[in-house]
Amino acid sequence: MAVMTAMHDSEHMQLVIDDESLIRTQYERKLREDCFGRVWFDEMLNRNKVLFVKRVALVKKVSQAIRGTGLVGEDLKYYVRTAAASAEKALISQDGHYEEKTCKVLKKHLKVMVLSAEEGGKLALTGG
Predict the structure, then answer these.
(1) Torsion angle defined by CA atoms of residues 106, 118, 31 and 101, in that order, rounded to the nearest 10 degrees
(2) What's the mean per-residue pLDDT of the chain?
(3) What pTM does this model have?
């Protein structure tokens, strides 16, 4: 929650999501309307703190390398491809399933840095 609050309050930070609204649909489907995450997401939208980007298309070689680390499903389809399309190429995750080998492959092939929620909060507080 700290990273979400820091992003919300920072004048420098934006939430980056895909222009197909796949991530938005995930939030809306998985989170109750009154839970903190959903309220935060809606406030970010209302405050124009959401940047929409076209997800990066993965060439077969890169897709295979990433899948070879065990990262599949919506994390790869939505979040990684969206992070790769962002200027910062940062993926802030509270999930522990981004193993070191996965992070190395994402950095090598897509220049995506996976940050913990704590690291993301510090980034939001410092403005980059």
Answers:
(1) 20
(2) 86
(3) 0.85
Whether 15 and 8 have beta carbons less than 8 Å apart is answered as no
Closest CA to 23 of 53, 59, 57: 53
What's residue 40's pLDDT?
86
Domain assignments of the chain as residue spans, ordered by start: 2-126
Provide the H-helix boundaries in the chain.
2-9, 22-30, 36-46, 60-67, 73-74, 81-85, 100-110, 117-126
Q: Are 115 and 92 in contact (CB under 8 A)?
A: yes
Confidence of residue 41 (pLDDT cuts 50, 70, 90): confident
| DSSP code, position 114 | E
Contact assessment for residue 77 and residue 53, using Cβ atoms and an 8 Å cutoff: no
